[in-house]
Amino acid sequence: MAYSSTTSSLAVASRSSVLTELEIYRDEWKIKKTLTKSDLGDQSRLLIYKGCVETHVLPSMADAVKYVLHSKDRLRVSVWDYDTQSLHQLDFKYWPSSKSYVLTLKWKKDFVKRRNLKENDQIALFWDPDASSFWFRVLHQSLPYIVS
């Protein structure tokens, strides 16, 4: 038996050279991002690339919700912080100028400051269609810069 951590599967080879794979881990965190200065700045917004939203979020949203997003209006969404088990309300909208989607409103207060997020921290999101909400988690926090 051999385990491959890169494919997250258990591969078993039999004497007849038949290879079967059993999936033992499924990564629900479809949208992953390394935070930039602009994600942490005074605009209080998290930029999410259009392709990620079109692939992993929009297909499971209702048509009425998609209409709101494309009408240059905001959509109030719940964001469940998986790590701290806390629920937050943010605005989700499309920004044509950057051709991307953003989470705004209390992003800076509820996530950047409360979670002490810094540039190069890695976060992940996924859209839960059953709850019509985002789930958020911090995958990796960069070490603080120390001046000696």
From TrEMBL:
Q: What is the annotated localization of this protein?
A: Nucleus
**From the UniProt record, which GO molecular function terms apply?**
DNA binding
Q: What is its main location?
A: nucleus
Q: Which InterPro entries match?
A: B3_DNA-bd (IPR003340), B3_domain (IPR051442), DNA-bd_pseudobarrel_sf (IPR015300)
Keywords associated with the record: DNA-binding, Nucleus, Transcription, Transcription regulation
Query: Which cellular component appears as one GO term in the record?
Result: nucleus
Q: Can you name this protein?
A: TF-B3 domain-containing protein
